[in-house]
Amino acid sequence: MVMYPMSDLQFQAVYNVLSFSLASMMATTIFLWFRSFAVKDKYQSAVLISGLVTFIAAYHYMRIFNSWVNAYHYSAGHVEDGALAMSAPTLTGIPFNDAYRYMDWLLTVPLLLIEILLVMKLDEQAFSSKAWSLGTSSALMIVSGYYGELVVTGDLTPRWACWFLSMCFFLYIVNTLLVGLADATNSEADPVIAGKIRTAQVMTVISWCTYPVVYLFPMLGIEAGTAVVGIQIGYCCSDIISKCGVGLVIYQISYAKSTKEGLL
Question: Lowest-pLDDT range, 2-11, 76-85, 105-114?
């Protein structure tokens, strides 16, 4: 990936948001895996997979963070008016590898969709059908968007083409989550549980809507360095909501269902 000069503020903004995302993923993983013992066996898979999603993300965020740090170098600061003044970082010549993020999505996005299906009222055949269709569509969405992500300046035609293709798969997934699975969500006898499942679906869709918007930054005439910073911050915020946030909602659904069945 071609790297661009960054101001100190730009570098630190990405540095801090990557660090925060890594900590969020690690903390959520530990919580979900320990709390998986608090739910009934048939719901443990959903909670364990939620923790697996954040664990995989934590690993890749560690690689992304290290790659970002290695791409830039700070020279020794100098004292100005009694304070240490730092100049902007310089490029080291080592490219920032954002492919780690797409490798992460290729693994975690299908799993994230499956964890939602696992807490819904679906028979074996319906679950298998939805899991395969959503998993395949999400993988194609990510693969089709990757090439365009490499093009930030110059001729942005490939980026536009990848955006449109990826959006086709994205809209299919959104339609399936909000419309195709509506009957299964509404079939829940407990309105509280149905509401939580709906929350998980809506949170996933809303957080994912950030991705196609952030993807457009270079096409909107935003300067390359600023676009890279905006892309990284936008993707991190979306990942925290869709992985950590939805994972915690999945745990709440599993715990609520386990408690209700225990009382019955």
Answer: 76-85
7: left (phi over 0), alpha (psi -120 to 50) or beta: beta
Instruction: Please report whether residue 69 resides in a domain.
Output: yes
Give the Cα-Cα-Cα angle 233, 238, 243 (nearest 5 degrees): 130
How far from chain centre, in Å, is Cα 230?
15
Structure tokens at 130: 């939805």
pLDDT tens, residue by residue, 60-104? 999 999 999 999 988 876 777 667 677 788 888 888 888 899 899
Element at 84 (helix H, strand E): strand 83-85
Here the CATH number for the domain that contains residue 168 is 1.20.1070.10
Residue 41 has pLDDT above 70, yes or no: yes
Sequence-ordered list of residues with C-beta below 8 angstroms from that of 20, at least 6 positions apart, any chain:
236, 240
Domain containing 112 equals 8-74+87-263
Contacts of 171 (CB under 8 A, 6+ apart): none
